[in-house]
Amino acid sequence: MSARIAKLVPYRLSICGLHELDGFCEDGVSHVVSILDTGHGTVEVFERFGPHHREDFRFDDVVEELPGRLLPSEDEVARLLRFGERLAADGADHVLVHCFMGVSRSTAAAAILLAQHNPGREPDVFEALNDIRPRNWPNRAMIGHADRLLGREGALFRAMVDQHRSITRRYPDMAELIRSVGRGHEVPTD
Q1: Are 106 and 97 in contact (CB under 8 A)?
Q2: Which pLDDT tens digit goes with each residue over 35-94?
Q3: Where do the DSSP E strands lie in the chain?
Q4: What's the distance, CA 104 to chain centroid?
Q5: How far, in Å, CA of 130 to CA of 56, rounded?
Q6: Residue 179: DSSP 8-state
Q7: pTM for this one?
Q8: pLDDT tens string 1-15
């Protein structure tokens, strides 16, 4: 675990995509945040994990209302925050957050968990996120809900926009990926 992450949370935090879950079967994962599209079925790989507590979420990787797609709701982010509250009480050792690609919803969820008990350290949250998953693009709808629920008055959202700007400079192909899935309005132009 990087020193930046250790200053924010007392547990190991990992992020991955669905195709990478097999790599964590023997990794001592104690808690899982599983985020997949609404139409996705059961994830059988978890049967090969050791004992763990898992919170399953089903919403689509969208940031605005679209026909046939389920936008991440404030209620779902509130549920994620309740899960985050329980991590210390549960003695969490290794928390794994995954979504389909390990780029947007999972990185937003991890950032929210990192930010939860660290008000005023929003830029540090995204620096730590880079240590865990360098190629990230946190879902802005989820971060917006968390910003309001945590009372950050825009600080978490602004830090995410700065993160998107930084990722655009470091990984131009990420910006192209985001544009290709219809979310080009999220890519900073400066």
Answers
A1: yes
A2: 999 888 788 999 999 999 999 999 998 888 888 877 999 999 999 999 999 998 899 999
A3: 12-17, 31-36, 53-58, 94-99
A4: 6
A5: 24
A6: H
A7: 0.95
A8: 688 899 999 999 999
Distance CA 31, CA 54 (A): 6
**Residue 133 CB neighbours (<10 A):** 21
- How far from each other are the two terminal CA atoms of the chain, in whole angstroms? 33
Cβ neighbours of residue 41 closer than 8 Å, sequence gap 6 or more = none
The token pair that represents 88 in the structure block: 């210390």
Cβ contacts of residue 61 below 8 Å, gap of 6+?
A: 37, 99, 100, 101, 104, 105, 139, 181
The dihedral over CA atoms of 89, 16, 184, 68, expressed in degrees to the nearest 10, equals -80
The neighbour count for residue 18, using CB atoms within 10 Å, is: 18
Please report how the helices 155-170 and 172-180 are oriented relative to each other, as an axis angle in degrees rounded to 10. 110
pLDDT at 185: 84
Q: Contact at 8 Å (CB) between 147 and 155?
A: yes
Q: Which amino acid is at 117?
A: H
**With contact defined as beta carbons under 8 Å apart, do 97 and 36 qualify?**
no
**DSSP code of 54?**
E
Query: How far out from the chain centre does Cα 158 lie?
Result: 16
Closest CA to 116 of 136, 97, 135: 97
